[in-house]
Amino acid sequence: QGACVQCHKMNGEGGEQGPDLSLVGIRLKRQKLLESVINPSAEITPGYGLSTAQLKSGDIASGRLVSENDQEVVLAALDGQETTYLRTEIVELSPPISAMPAMGATLAPQDLRDLVSYLASARNFKVAKGASLKHGE
C-alpha cells in the first residue's frame, strides 16, 4: 500500500534506495519504528539521506549521501550511479533529509498500526546479503 519495496529490501527482495528492513524488528523497538514511519527525517540511517551540493561551478548536485569526509563527498543518483565531489568543489552541502514520505499522513490509523507490527516482527526472516544489525538503522 505504501510502496515500501520500491526503496526498501525485505528478505532479499525490493529496492536499494532505503535501508534493508529484513531485521528491523531486532534493531528498533516499536516506538522507534513508529517514529521512523511518521517522521522519517527524525533519524536517518547513515548512507541513506538525500543531500544537495552547491558547486563552485554554479551547478547543483543532489542524491543519496553515500559518504563524506574532509576531502570528498559521494552522492548516488536514483539509478545508483555514484559521483565523488572534492570538498574544494563544494560551496555548500545541505544536511541529509529522508526521501521517505511521512506515512502517518497517508495511511489509515489501523494500517499504520499493522505496518509497525509487521516491521516489529521482522526478526526471523532469512538475512539478506549485506543486511546490517547496527542499532539505529
Brief write-up:
This protein is of the alpha+beta class.
What's the order of the H and E elements? EEHHEEEEEH
Beta strand count: 7
Which spans of ≥5 residues are poorly predicted at pLDDT below 50? Answer: 127-137
Q: Nearest-angstrom radius of gyration?
A: 16 Å
Structural class category: alpha+beta
Q: Describe the strand arrangement of the main beta sheet, using strand numbers.
A: 6-5-4-3-7
Shape assignment: elongated
State the helical fraction. 10-25%
Number of helices: 3
Strand content: 15-25%
Average the pLDDT over all residues and give the rounded result: 86
Describe the main β-sheet briefly.
5 strands, antiparallel
N-end to C-end Cα span: 22 Å
Oligomerization category of the chains in this entry: single chain
Q: How would you characterize the overall build of this protein?
A:
- The protein has 137 residues and is α+β, with helices and mostly antiparallel strands.
- The chain has a five-stranded antiparallel β-sheet with strand order 6-5-4-3-7, with no helix packed on it. Strands 1-2 form a two-stranded antiparallel ribbon.
- Helices cover 18% and strands 24% of the residues.
- Helix 2 packs across helix 3.
